[in-house]
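Retry 2 of 3 after timeout on previous attempt. Resubmitting structure tokens to design endpoint.
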């Protein structure tokens, strides 16, 4: 098992390093902008200019230093980067089938489910690791750029934001593992779940601005990660994290069941 995990890490180490660096730089840029607005009293002016739907989705993150410092955790591009990485890592079993590497692996006395467990371990570590890099980048940036007297985001809020970011990535990673149990091509499994993730995010956005589509947004995993609600303390984080965890776990269980039964 350890050999399989190390081999997968070797394949994705460059991607993980680049994404980690990008996330750290993004955090630094966000904190620098927040510091500039804090010093120029820009948050007071922004608060009166935001449309209602923007206030609902990002309002607290755009009207205070502490809020903007936490924006990186739920900025759409950052969320999608973490989600797509989880999907990419989790579809490796389908890639093994496509490249016929599964034949070489299964020629050894190894349980078939090792291939799924390998991808699950790396996917979980990658999503948790990138979220941890966001936290480290946040605190380093606050120490470097935060103006004197600025209120930092509380450690509880940062922990919740980190947990939700990792959970939503893990949720789609579980779905990608399940898809790889049926697909014989990694690209097909990755495209199916990756495009689906973008579609679900759009469903959530539409549900937030159009009341008639609100019911549909509840079906989206992204509905259970509202950064603005976390910043204000209005989120039911236990409920949201449970939903994301259960959906991801269902995909993982399905992946084990399907991969152990499939003809490879």
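Retry 2 succeeded. Sequence:
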């Amino acid at each position: 098992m350890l050999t399989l995990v190390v081999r997968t890490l070797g394949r994705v180490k460059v991607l993980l390093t680049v994404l980690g660096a990008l996330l750290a730089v993004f955090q630094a840029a966000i904190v620098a902008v927040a510091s500039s607005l804090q010093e120029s009293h820009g948050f007071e002016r922004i608060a009166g200019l935001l449309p209602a739907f923007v206030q609902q989705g990002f309002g607290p993150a755009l009207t205070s230093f502490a809020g903007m410092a936490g924006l990186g955790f739920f900025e759409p591009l950052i969320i999608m980067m973490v989600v797509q990485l989880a999907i990419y890592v989790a579809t490796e079993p389908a890639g093994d089938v496509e490249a016929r590497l599964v034949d070489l692996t299964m020629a050894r006395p190894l349980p078939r489910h090792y291939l799924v467990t390998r991808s699950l371990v790396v996917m979980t570590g990658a999503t948790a690791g990138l979220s941890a890099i966001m936290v480290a980048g946040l605190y380093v940036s606050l120490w470097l750029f935060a103006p004197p007297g600025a209120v930092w985001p509380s450690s509880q809020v940062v922990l919740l934001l980190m947990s939700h970011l990792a959970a939503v990535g893990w949720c789609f990673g579980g779905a990608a593992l399940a898809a790889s149990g049926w697909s014989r091509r990694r690209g097909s499994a990755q495209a199916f779940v990756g495009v689906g993730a973008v579609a679900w995010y759009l469903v959530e956005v539409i549900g937030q601005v159009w009341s008639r589509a609100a019911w549909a947004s509840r079906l989206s995993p992204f509905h259970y990660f509202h950064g603005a609600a976390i910043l204000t303390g209005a989120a039911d984080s236990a409920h949201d994290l449970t939903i994301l965890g259960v959906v991801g776990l269902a995909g993982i269980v399905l992946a084990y069941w399907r991969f152990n039964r499939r003809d490879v």
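Attempt log closed. The longest helix spans residues 2-39.
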